[in-house]
Amino acid sequence: EVQLVESGGGLVQPGRSLKLSCLASGFTFSNYGMNWIRQAPGKGLEWVASISSSSSYIYYADTVKGRFTISRDNAKNTLYLQMTSLRSEDTALYYCARLGELRRVRGWFAYWGQGTLVTVSS
Amino acid sequence: DIQMTQSPASLSASLGETVTIECLASEDIYSNLAWYQQKPGKSPQLLIYDASSLQDGVPSRFSGSESGTQYSLEINSLQSEDAATYFCQQHHDYPPTFGGGTKLELK
């Protein structure tokens, strides 16, 4: 069974940093592209960042480019999102999600974690 | 960026009815469209990918279709568990973009 478990969320002041993690199990992590997607309270879905299976291709939304860094450790089956210079508008539930197809760079999000809440407030 | 315009924003229907939700892409996305269902307090679940392919385990009352840049999700024989918010997402090009969502309420 595919499982994605996010952690690392919390309350943080504007301008500070936070690092999210997503521990994957139930599939060969190194074979799939991974993503972070966020959802502000009561709002829709916003894609944040993607990383290919071997970390060769990385993409960011314009809203986080230069502030967030996506990375992965295939030996630890873990996806990360380092967030710096946080703003109030970054407040959201952050999901990690796995792509549906093997070794693809883009595609549909076949599996989602339960999310970790990031609140940016003074 | 490719814009996905989803409609309606909300709808109310009765058990057993059929409903259709639509997404209009701002340019050709070549059938690279997915549909998700999100129930309150839960993470989104994939229903359909590549416009009309049903994800494993999803009931056959869900179906997807397309006409040009217009994509549709049809839910037949509505069940109580179908009450949720539905989102479309294009996976043709970066950045992946979502529709605004459709909240389906059961009468």
SSE arrangement:
The complex is a heterodimer of chains A (122) and B (107).
Chain A: E1 3-7, E2 10-12, E3 18-25, E4 34-39, E5 45-51, E6 58-60, E7 68-73, E8 78-83, E9 92-99, E10 109-112, E11 116-120
Parallel strand pairs in A: 2-11
Antiparallel strand pairs in A: 1-3, 3-8, 4-5, 4-9, 5-6, 7-8, 9-10, 9-11
Chain B: E1 4-7, E2 10-13, E3 19-25, E4 33-38, E5 45-49, E6 53-54, E7 62-67, E8 70-75, E9 84-90, E10 97-98, E11 102-106
Parallel strand pairs in B: 2-11
Antiparallel strand pairs in B: 1-3, 3-8, 4-5, 4-9, 5-6, 7-8, 9-10, 9-11
Walkthrough of the structure:
The complex is a heterodimer of chains A (122) and B (107). Chain A has 122 residues and is an all-beta fold. Chain A is 0% helix and 50% strand. Chain A contains no helices and eleven strands. Chain A has strands at residues 3-7, 10-12, 18-25, 34-39, 45-51, 58-60, 68-73, 78-83, 92-99, 109-112, 116-120. In chain A, strands 2, 4, 5, 6, 9, 10 and 11 form a seven-stranded mixed sheet that branches. In chain A, a hairpin with a 6-residue loop joins strand 5 (45-51) and strand 6 (58-60). The radius of gyration of chain A is 13 Å and the shape is globular. The mean pLDDT of chain A is 97. Chain B is mainly β and 107 residues long. In chain B, 0% of the residues lie in helices and 50% in strands. In chain B, the strands form two sheets. In chain B, strands 2, 4, 5, 6, 9, 10 and 11 form a seven-stranded mixed sheet that branches. The radius of gyration of chain B is 13 Å and the shape is globular. Chain A binds chain B through residues 35, 44-47, 50, 59, 61-62, 95, 100, 106-115, and chain B through 34, 36, 43-46, 49-50, 55, 87, 89, 91, 93-101.
Condensed summary:
By secondary structure, chain A is mainly β. Chain A has strands at residues 3-7, 10-12, 18-25, 34-39, 45-51, 58-60, 68-73, 78-83, 92-99, 109-112, 116-120.
